[in-house]
Amino acid sequence: MSSLPTDRALLWLGALLYLAGFVAGLLTLARRSTTPAPRAVLNSLLVAGWIAQMAGLYVRGLATGGCPLGNTFELVQFVAWSAMVLYFFVGTAFRVSLLGLFTAGYAATLALISLLIPAWDATHGQKIFGSNPWIELHAALAVFSYGVFGLLALTSVMTLLQNWSLKHKRLNGLFWFLPSVVQLDQINTRMLALGVLLLTFSLAVGSVWWLRDTASVNLPKLVVTLGVWAVYLTVLLLRWRALLVSVRFAWVCLVMFLLALLSLGPVNSSRQHEVVLTPINR
Amino acid sequence: MEPTPSVLFLLGASHHTAPLAVREKLALDDARAAALATRLQQTPGISEFTLLNTCNRVELYGVAGGEESLAVLRAAFAETTGCAPAELDGVLHLRQHHDVVAHLFSVAAGLDSQIVGETEVLGQVKTAYDKALARQWTGPVLNRVFQKAFQAAKHIRSHTRIGEGQISVANVAVDLAGKIFGDLAPVNVLVVGAGDIGLKTVQAFQSRGAKAITVASRTLSKAEEAAASAGGWAASLSDLPDILATADIVACSTAAPGFVLTHEMVTAAMQRRARPLFLIDLALPRDIDPAAAAIANVFLYNLDDLAKIAEGNLAQREAEIARCRAILAERTAALWPQVAQSLARNS
Lengths: 282, 347
Hints:
The complex is a heterodimer.
Chain A: H1 4-30, H2 36-64, H3 72-94, H4 99-116, H5 133-167, H6 181-212, H7 219-240, H8 246-269
Helix pairs in contact in A: 1-2, 1-4, 2-3, 3-4, 3-5, 4-5, 5-6, 5-8, 6-7, 7-8
Chain B: E1 7-14, H1 20-26, H2 30-42, E2 46-53, E3 57-64, H3 67-81, H4 85-88, E4 93-96, H5 98-108, H6 120-134, H7 140-159, H8 169-181, E5 188-192, H9 196-207, E6 212-217, H10 220-230, E7 233-236, H11 240-246, E8 249-252, H12 263-270, E9 277-281, E10 298-302, H13 303-311, H14 314-346
Parallel strand pairs in B: 5-6, 5-8, 6-7, 8-9, 9-10
Antiparallel strand pairs in B: 1-3, 1-4, 2-3
């Protein structure tokens, strides 16, 4: 476990680079700069932070002998990492202004909170990976879908801000740079569909394993996981039928993600084995 | 006994003194404008006058035989508009002499507009003057003052940068549409009212790529004419409930005395659609029920809202505005002695 201090150092570096990106983005916005140089600075910081975070997770993965999703700290770090991966794709594909700033703030917040709460990293779950690649895929996809839902929550916040600014005729400052209502709605819908697809696939893979050994997953985890999936699927169907649109859709996506984050606790606790891996006080 | 000197005067209200709801009451439709003109013609001492009636101002420019002639004007205004005289206190402003020339120059040059630097007002001043000239309401004093105002406005437009940026209501509306829909190419634009403002709005949206344009008017032939010039479709006002369900942007600029789009119509339309609806009320009195703004996914902007957004760019043009004001002050000072001479001759 001698490499573990290094993994936390790398994860700290990643979190601080995300924070630096967020601050750089805010300063750019305050100066109302429209030149491409500040955006390049923001993206460089985010890429550097993402590489540092990935390196930290990799080192930790080597130490734990599998995908680092063994406790709340690792889950939250992975969710932040997933959101950044998605930003690199979504931001490029849709050219969504301000998404970089929001993602930087979001990833920095998650990463820093997880680093600042020692209890989240005090124990480590059973080594569930390595013995079965399908279970590893199931868990990685599930957490990655949380990353998608996290980014969906961010774009939902942007939707609510844009809607508020247009309704209240406050179009100065930050609001002027927000993407259009229609563009945000399209991104939200696609992000929701992607998240549901990933989670469905993850659950399908997991269910095959579960049917072989129903005792391997406890009831709270089963109920919470299926509950999150069912609610997200229902939201997608309602959006598809145009029964849930605009502000209500954005609110539901935001609240759902907060509930999904809370669900990480029961999901994670289902496989706690009190294996102390990381000396926190350093 | 010395003759009473004639007075060049201006009595009216504008967006500076009257909010939108009051301007709606003061707005003069053709019948009321004709009634006021008749009243003025019958008023002893009023030798010349012109009525300027736009969305942002109702102003009466004229030459009176003396101060006492001015006293009856306020009453005539109140009577024609149906407002109580007390209601007009603080709303109507009276200017005289040199101030009138300075104000008209400022109005014609767009410096007194809600969106400073806009050019539509010059056309409106010209129309008002042409109408007065054709009906022989004007005389040597107003003819000279108005002609010089047009010259000054043209000078400002061609020798300063006051017209740069998004300074027309239509352009501000198009910018806002971009904040709601992003790309305007696939949006359906419905313009209600086939007048000048409606057509300018159509042009502004077309310049940003909007292709599907429908023009609706009370008179179908007018809508067809406007739609033909815009390359769009025509509709009558009775089709509005159906078109509303498919339109993304609705710009209203009719002269209707009541609401053309009611809260109920907008609610019904929103139940049949998932996309946002951008309502632009360019009319005075207003065409769209303000209560529609509370409906989810509906964004309603009226003239005052659009002007306030345009004011956001005002700081950037302040130096240019100061330069324009200096030019107009110089021209006013040069013209005033001649006008004063004419007024003296008039007496």
